[in-house]
Amino acid sequence: MATNAIIKSGQVLIAEPFMLDPYFRRSVVLLCEHHDQGTIGFILNKNIDMRINDLMSDFPTFDAEIFYGGPVQTDTLHYMHNLGELLDESVKIAEGVWWGGDFEKLKFLVTQQLVQPSDIRFFVGYSGWSSGQLKEEMEYGSWVQGDMDANYLFKFKPNRLWRHVMYNKGNVFEVISDMPEHISWN
């Protein structure tokens, strides 16, 4: 893979098809922060069998699924949404994708039914890389870079996302997207 790849917020990392790491196997990670100290992102396609109200009893009734953002600080809750500046203090990550924001205002917007479950995605934990670590993994070929599309977060079924994003890269990646997850299935 490209060793001169530029890593930046707002792009996705697609796990190479034979990555063995159970946290990142066939994952699509949206990078939200990248600087000299390291990188933070969220796995977009690993949902867990839990809803926001299962996790937080004081959250307004809201049928939003919880996703596994990554193995770092799994006692933290993060969220990405398409509410833009409607949610104060949120950070634009890519076109149509915002990260975080005022949690009390989010609860108010949910109570007022101004936010639907399809507008937001909650994550337990996050994916993190120390300074230089992600660059090394890129040079090793663990990840394929891709452009973010808000539909990846808000429209696609998680279990189909890796294949779809890989296919969208075109050329050889279309072939890779059709590879079975387990080589014995080939």
Describe this structure in words.
The chain has a single domain, classed as VC0467-like, CATH 3.40.1740. Strands 1, 2, 3, 4, 5, 6, 7, 8, 9 and 10 form a ten-stranded mixed sheet that branches. The chain has helices at 52-55, 103-111, 133-140, 150-154, 158-168, 172-177, and strands spanning 11-15, 28-35, 38-43, 47-51, 65-68, 72-81, 91-94, 97-99, 120-130, 143-147. The chain has six helices and ten strands; from the N terminus they run ββββαββββαβαβααα. The chain is α+β, with helices and mostly antiparallel strands and 186 residues long.
Mean of the pLDDT scores? 90
Note poorly predicted spans.
Answer: none
How many structural domains in the coordinates?
1
Major sheet size, sense and barrel closure: 10 strands, mixed
CATH-defined fold name: VC0467-like
Instruction: Give the percentage of residues in beta strands.
Output: 25-35%
Kindly state the percentage of residues in helix.
Answer: 10-25%
| Helical run tally | 6
Estimate the global geometry from the Cα principal axes: globular
Which features would summarize this protein structure in a list?
186 residues; alpha+beta; VC0467-like; 10-stranded mixed β-sheet; 33% strand; globular
Outline of the structure:
This protein has helices spanning 52-55, 103-111, 133-140, 150-154, 158-168, 172-177; strands at residues 11-15, 28-35, 38-43, 47-51, 65-68, 72-81, 91-94, 97-99, 120-130, 143-147. The protein is of the alpha+beta class.
